[in-house]
Amino acid sequence: MPKVIDHKKRKDLIVKTALRVYDEGGLKEANLSRIAQEANLSRTTVYQYFKDVSDVFNYLVKTQTDKILQKYLSEEWSQGSSSERLRRITADIIDTADKYKVEIIRFVKSINAIDANIENIVHHRTAKLRLFLSRLVRGGIREGSIRKCSSTEATEKIMAIMLSYGFMLAYFPESAEFSRTSVTDYVDYLSSSSSKS
Question: Is the pTM of this model over 0.85?
Answer without folding.
Answer: no
